[in-house]
Amino acid sequence: MSGLSRYNVEVVDSTRYALGEGPYYDPRFKRLSWVDIIGQKVWFIKNGKKECIDAPQPVGAAIPLADSEGFALALKDGIYTYENGKLSLMADLKDVYKDYWRSNDAKADAKGRIWFGASVIDGSDHEAEGNLYLFDNGKIGIKVEGTKIANGMAWSFDKKKFFFSDSFEHAVFVFDYDEESGSINNRRELFHVDENISDGLTIDSEDNLWVAFWGGSRIEKRSGATGELLEVIPIPAKQVTSCCFGDEDMKTLYVTSAGTGLDGEYDGCLFRFRTDVKGVSPDYCVKI
């Protein structure tokens, strides 16, 4: 299925999601989760059973909570916790976002703080715009102002670098990162995107990035030190959106895609393939 590649790309779930995004493997519960932003659902597979959570708004991301099986949900008007079937507001975004913005990608850092991006609502006539924010100890601050589409995020193994994909800036950037304060500075372009659009990303234990390409039917493995292209892995879906490492050895890469407006057999499906490198284990959870 994967064409000229040393990886065997498999379809995990043949459901065609409108805008599959934000995969996350939680090793505590052996649970893979992802969202359908437009479909307003959080999906997860646990013990071989697929289940979903209905969200009242477009859901940009679902990040596992540190102290329960619940999630922090990045919705249009706020960051919410979801536990035991109940939504509770953590951070009100009504006065933070413009009324035509929604939450996009979001991740927690090692301190349990939430990094989240805003982007223009799908189908809007407005030009791409937004900001990258940090929710820390009850306060919301702007970390990168004037983003186009705030997307993939990752931290280096030594927690001294922060990686960030701004899709319509057509680049993946790297910043110096201070873990204690959460400050980022000295932004520079790690690599420029010449073809298609960089979307979500993850990082492996060797500090290499695995980047999804919207419109590109591929994952690219890139050096986190130089941005050099190391490998290209074809994915049989046009709009590849994000990826994460998972399974007990953290060597399986799970890949999401979007299917809206497309008619390819696997557009919008969830994929996986085995790699020869471990992802960062575990990914980080939200502390409340």
From TrEMBL:
One of its GO terms (biological process) is L-ascorbic acid biosynthetic process. Its cofactor is Zn(2+). Residues 19-258 form the SMP-30/Gluconolactonase/LRE-like region domain. Keywords: Metal-binding, Zinc. Substrate binds at residues 102, 104, 122. Belongs to the SMP-30/CGR1 family. This is Sugar lactone lactonase YvrE.
